[in-house]
Amino acid sequence: MNNPPVIIIYYDENSQLLREVKAGIEEESVFFKAVEYRGLSCEDLAKEASTISLLGIGIGIYNKTIALIVEKLNEPLIHIQDADFNEARRIGCNAARYAKGISLK
Amino acid sequence: MAIIAGVDIGNSTTEICLGSYENQGFHFLGSAETKTSGTKGTLENIHGIIQVLKKVLDQCNLNIKDINLIRLNEATPVIGDSAMETITETVITESTMIGHNPDTPAGVGLAIGYTMDILDVEKNSNDSDYLVLVDEIDYESVAHKINSLIGKGYKINGAILKNDEAVLVSNRLVQKIPIVDEVKGIKKIPSNMLGAIEVAPEERPIKTLSNPYGIATIFNLNQEVTRMIIPIAKSLVGNRSAVVIRTPEGNVAERSIPAGKIRLLSDKQSSIIDVDQGAESIMEAVSAMNKLADVEGEENTNVGLMFNRMKSGLSKLTGENIRDIHIKDLMALDTISPAIVQGGIAGEVAMEKAVAIAAMVQTDSLPMEEIAMAIEKATGIYTEVAGVEAVMASIGALTTPGTGLPLTILDLGGGSTDIAHIDQEGKVLSEHFAGAGQMVTMLINSELGINDMYLAESIKRYPVAKVESLFHIRLENGTVKFFNQPLSPNLFGKVVILEENNMIPIDQSLTVEKIIYVRKEAKKKVFLSNVSRGLKKLSKEGLKPHHIVLVGGSTLDFEIPDLILEALASKGYVVGSGNILGNCGPRNAVATGLVLSYKKDKDEE
Fold it and tell me: What gap in Å lies between CA A43 and CA A96, rounded to an integer?
């Protein structure tokens, strides 16, 4: 059986920002899987997540920094330091929009 | 040996042709063009002329001292301009309808009930049907509350949310209901009014609220009221979701905006026409006038202001009194223009009817002698004004392989479309028409709702593509272009204009198909109408054109010559883009004509 086509979120610590990222993806009706993963920087979390995800889309959350990496590229598509709730929601939304091939907000 | 330069100052481009006469032989040496500096016919043009001189001298490896004579065209003093008048507006009173079509509504179906803030429902009895209104409440709490209310026996049939959270709420509901979200002005929705929410399945539009009888069924409307709610149904056609609320005074009305009158004057008559009668009526009135002597617009209307602007512009240019400047031609086209609906709750946009008008002012002459003297002063080369533009253009166009006399040329410009016909005896007939490249840009700008003339100009000139991934784009013709570096995230998923080496994203939600359709239609509407008017004029004079050469800036457009060929070829005309001297394409017709006519003029001296 194949891996399901999900966006993978690796987070260092559970937080309200994680909830917002998940909400952004869910509103766009795309699937995700969130897993706690300690010991890596935000970018590395995102890179690792992108590698594991069947869709090639990974999000890393470390404290208030969130990164979105797609296609295992080195540079994050979106990278926000000190994200607020709206920005976190939007990153989730954009990760899903990327998966659907529609333009980002 | 004499080296002659022909310089043509156009509205947008200044062109030069360099040729040498040795014994009886003529040799073409080179050609160049540059953007016209300043307005055509003013001393500001000198700068562009010097520039284009340098360009062609560099090309031919010559020095300015090598040129014996500069011939400047007697530029036709024509200014073309265009403006638009919107003639309808959609107004919603008392928050009667929501039709903004959010991206992610939820819960397919039709819900009918009384509007009520979600926090106020429990203050009422549970025997009514409700549509809950939700302001700033966390989505989990919203779902929890709705589940709880339904559990207590309340009939919550639908929900309207301020935030973009319809799917989030719906996923947590025990019983699925239609939900419309992203309603910024939710506070404006009146409470305790009967309303209906409809959400269609993803692949379809709504069918009840976009149907006047559907609305009549829900709200039990009689024949008279059903007629009045047509603008509501019309505004909701094609939406995936909508809300209609029955407010006592509320309504959606499509009103006519008085767009003002235009007065057409000819030698013998004058007629007044209302702009909001539409383009067809205006054009009928224009052709009923045998020859237009002037046009006046009503004060403080867009069209009235445009007429004044053009007349004062040409007056300043020529030094003539503004009262002596007249509008010689008018072209009107019906179009549509998206406008924000007044009173809308969520930024609804309606396509309003508009009339686009292009006008053309003409006067007797421009101060070309002054410009000639200034060029002579600046370069030390003897400069003379020679040749009527239409004649020079025809001589230049005749160097296109495959042409012969009699010849018809169509000069497709930015401000005007000109037709000229030259016969075997050398007799030339020419006419200028309002409506050209600039009007095409204006139509594209309004029909796509872009509100940005530079972007509209780019859309006119360049093909588009869809960015399908970070590594590939799909062009208009279906070809896929692949990149070896990821594209910028702000291009992802967007339609882009392929402008030279850049990709310019279009932020509005427009599809490639829509852009292509509007672009081609705008070009056809303007140029095919004018080509037709031009040919009619020739026919009135007893002339039968058959070889037609297209020249001018708009002929360089990647699809305009093809659109014209398609329209005229089936009627037996030979029509195509000029190829001056067999290698310049449709450029440089006048400049080349100026150089070629030197010998003839010299012989006649």
Answer: 19
